[in-house]
Amino acid sequence: MKNKTFGYGRDSSITQNEARQVLAFKEFGIDERDIYIDKVSGKDFNRDQYQLLKNILRENDVLVIKSIDRLGRNYEMIVDEWKDITKNIKADIVVLDMPLLDTRQKKDLLGTFINDLILQILSYVAEQERLFIRQRQREGIDIALSKGVKFGRPRIAKPDNFEEVIAKWKNKELTARESMKILNLKTNSFYKMVKELN
């Protein structure tokens, strides 16, 4: 059976565009049907397309990724995943943005050592970048909060006649539906305000 070459791409959200990764895979000679893309965070490997691809990978197949952070952003998990693919499945990995990370080259002990060393350094850098992103997000949120920016849905003001209508509702003079109509409130807002009143 002929060895196959697969491309794996990942973007953190549906708003990001994977076109750059797909183009790089096609230029490498990978057929579009052999390209797998996930639109999820790189914090772990519980990704549908990645797991599907990993189940297809066989010995001497080649897994191509654009850069190490597209594989993942957790240092230990990247190293474990790399070892699982190269040592257990016995497939090769090529990182396009880092030509030194190509397990097809230098299969001797020194080549393996250099590959593993570079992988460890790049995986560490990928995880640090993930931590920096989270830190910057937290700092941005803290600054926004200190400036009075409100997150979440805007709070709905309680109608002036709220307590009067609720009293009638509690006395069964009005149904919940009638009360909501008088107060011009949706179901969730109505019951939330009732809970807060209690």
Gist of the model:
With 198 residues, this protein is an alpha/beta fold. The protein has helices at 19-28, 48-56, 68-71, 75-89, 109-146, 162-170, 176-183, 187-197, and strands spanning 5-11, 35-39, 62-65, 92-95.
Question: Mind sketching the topology for me?
Answer:
Elements lengths: L4 E7 L7 H10 L6 E5 L8 H9 L5 E4 L2 H4 L3 H15 L2 E4 L13 H38 L15 H9 L5 H8 L3 H11 L1
Parallel strand pairs: 1-2, 1-3, 3-4
Helix pairs in contact: 4-5, 6-7
Explain this structure to me?
The chain has 198 residues and is α/β, with parallel strands linked by helices. The protein folds into two domains: 139 residues, Rossmann fold (3-Layer(aba) Sandwich); 36 residues. It is 53% helix and 10% strand. It has eight helices and four strands. It has a four-stranded parallel sheet, with helices on both faces. Strand 1, helix 1 and strand 2 form a beta-alpha-beta unit. The mean pLDDT is 84.
Roughly what is the average pLDDT, rounded to an integer? Answer: 84
Sheet with most strands: strand arrangement: 2-1-3-4
How far from one another are the termini?
71 Å
| Largest sheet report | 4 strands, parallel
Task: Tell me how many strands there are.
Answer: 4
Q: Helical stretch count? A: 8
* CATH third-tier fold name of the largest domain: Rossmann fold
Provide the low-confidence segments as ranges: none
Q: Which structural class should the secondary elements be placed in?
A: alpha/beta
